[in-house]
Amino acid sequence: MPGVIYQAMPRWVVTAADFRIDVDKGSGAVSHALGSHAILCALGTAYNLNLSARMFPYGTVAYVNNGRNGGTFLVFATPRAAGSCTSPMAGELQTGVYIGMMHVF
Predict the structure, then answer these.
(1) Euclidean distance between CA atoms 99 and 94, whole angstroms
(2) Cβ atoms 20, 1 nearer than 8 A
(3) What's this model's pTM, rounded to 2 decimal places?
(4) pLDDT at position 28, please?
């Protein structure tokens, strides 16, 4: 799961990360299929607009590629039946984007 933070300019930071999730037999309340896995990649940025020394816009784009039996998600929604548009089912892909404004108090 490598990740990197790059200071592109004095007021601009770029972050990137890559994760691989492997599941064995599972435990507790949930049992998972052997060999279930997912790969998640994320790319984000933050920039100081100089409007305030404590205010930063930020954004991230992330993508998850589930293995045949994997059901990892970026954004949770009620598990779905085939055909509706909520959390991905096993073996499906999901892409998510978020943007916002951070204020440090």
Answers:
(1) 17
(2) yes
(3) 0.67
(4) 46
